[in-house]
Amino acid sequence: MEELITRVTQKTGLDQATARKAIGIILGYLQKEGPQNEVNQLVAALPGAQDAIEESKTGAGGGLMGMVGSMGGGVMALGGQLMGAGVSMGQMQPLGKELFAYGREKAGEDVMGPIVGSIPGLSQFV
After folding, report:
1. Would the pTM count as exceeding 0.85?
2. Separation CA 75–CA 92 (nearest Å)
3. What is the pLDDT of residues 40-64, one digit of tens each?
4. DSSP 3-state of 53
5. CATH number attached to the domain at 2-117
């Protein structure tokens, strides 16, 4: 997980704590919305991923964007949660691209492909 956090901070300019929370939010979203088998394989391939998911659930992001993120569904809700955690719109795409590139390295395209393909709108961020 530390390698992924370092890569995300380098690509996005986020601090380590925000990067970890954002990764946890995205992985938690994938657990909720994606194909269970593949998402479970991805989480298993990323040591510390489940811990990051659990940590991201506490204090899910405050303010208006946090509320927007918890109200709706889909990728828009994910964006709201990320904004509530301190990720700007301009940082979301590089964050997603780096997370999914890392997932492909660790879990393989046969795991990542079905995840991206199963969630409408996700492909624009990865």
Report:
1. yes
2. 11
3. 999 999 999 999 999 998 754 444 4
4. helix
5. 1.10.490
